[in-house]
Design brief:
Aspartate Aminotransferase, domain 2, binds pyridoxal-5'-phosphate
Length: about 375
């Protein structure tokens, strides 16, 4: 969390702990504070405050958007998404497919770029919603959301984008981005974990996913997580001030890390389109080694990286994203993702550059494939 975010939250955990939906003054006084937080979230993406609902996480925002489209279009049973979505969309759509919905998972090429041909082909009169991520969480590759949205707007098909990785990293303008719903999540922009938001364009027909009380004007039930919402607002304000500066700084760190590792580790390659991606993510395959072994060795130096997405690592399943990109078997298992933030510095990058090449060399000596290559 950003230190400013923590500072902003503390009063709401200590003194101002009332229930914002209560009649009494103690809870009721929180109203203006929640409104201010909503305004800050809206400002970051150039939306209107009443187009924002607070949720418990990015996953909830994603599930809500897809489910709402199906509820408001009960006669339409077709969903279009991609083979590289985060599990919050990917597994939810697989679940819906088991429930009888028809789901098209669009393919990507070996650089993680969406097949536009497949997209055009998939659209039909039964399509209730298209849910395509803004930027991929494993490779950082950015999809052509403006182009897709323009087509969908013309066809009158609802369009949701999971922008959890993009919000705060690249500027977003909902006044020009042709998207009906957009998900974001607190912990990707230095707010706490366990809070998110869903943007719903004014005029979009919507049906709530969490049903109960009247919070969020009946669009999302549940007692407001006041402190975390305040934290999300503060994080959005900070991102708004820093997005350009952060972009340049993160690209510089990422490029230094990437170029040095590619130069010093034979048989290493970057996964994803290097020309169109987020500034903070790099996904590198070190052929003939196990990603988990690399992670454990890096962990000994206090370096936290990840193989696959954080949710799939531990499952020992190779990443569905890299598989969809056709990454060869020998590279698939040796893929590592580094995610950088404004709180990383060059000394940390230098440390990775120093320790990782010898680790790769050592692990290759232990692998039958690696030895063969030598
Ligand atoms: N979508 C993307 C692209 C993500 O990267 C993540 C989290 O890593 C999520 C959705 C889920 O967000 P949350 O962990 O807040 O549920």
């Amino acid at each position: 969390m950003a230190p400013e975010v923590l500072e902003a939250m503390l009063p709401y955990l200590k003194e101002l702990y009332g229930n914002a939906s209560s009649m009494h003054t103690f809870g009721g006084q929180l109203g203006p504070h929640l409104r201010a937080a909503r305004r800050k979230v809206a400002e970051l993406i150039n939306a209107e405050p009443d187009e924002i609902i607070f949720t418990s996480c990015g996953s909830e925002s994603d599930n809500t958007a897809v489910m709402s489209a199906l509820e408001v279009n009960p006669q339409k049973k077709h969903i279009i998404t991609t083979r590289v979505e985060h599990p919050a969309v990917y597994n939810f759509c697989k679940h819906l497919a088991r429930k009888g919905y028809r789901v098209t998972f669009l393919p990507v090429d070996n650089m993680g770029r969406l097949s536009l041909e497949a997209f055009y082909k998939a659209l039909d009169d039964e399509t209730a919603i298209v849910s395509i991520m803004f930027a991929n969480n494993e490779t950082g590759v950015i999809f052509p959301i403006e182009e897709l949205g323009a087509v969908l707007k013309e066809r009158g098909i609802l369009f949701h984008t999971d922008a959890v990785q993009a919000v705060g990293k690249v500027p977003l303008d909902m006044k020009t981005l042709p998207v009906d719903m957009l998900s974001l999540s607190g912990h990707k922009l230095h707010a706490p974990k366990g809070v998110g938001a869903l943007y719903i364009r004014k005029g979009t027909r919507f049906y709530p996913y969490i049903i109960g009380g009247h919070q969020e004007h009946g669009r999302r039930a549940g007692t407001e997580n006041v402190a975390s919402i305040i934290g999300l607002g503060e994080a959005c304000k900070l991102s708004m001030e820093r997005v350009g500066r952060d972009y340049d700084y993160l690209s510089m760190l990422r490029d230094k890390l990437e170029n040095s590792l590619l130069a010093n580790c034979p048989d290493a390659r970057v996964n994803g389109d290097r020309g169109r991606r987020l500034p903070n993510t790099t996904n590198i395959s070190f052929e003939y080694v196990e990603g988990e072994a690399i992670l454990l060795r890096l962990d000994e130096y206090g370096i936290c990286a990840s193989s696959g997405s954080a949710c799939t690592s531990g499952a020992l399943e190779p990443s569905h994203v890299l598989r969809a990109m056709g990454v060869p078997f020998t590279a698939l298992h040796g893929s590592i993702r580094f995610s950088l933030s404004r709180y990383n510095n060059e000394t940390e990058i230098d440390k990775v550059i120093e320790v990782l090449p010898p680790i790769i060399k050592e692990l290759r000596m232990l692998s039958p494939y690696g030895r063969e290559k030598k």
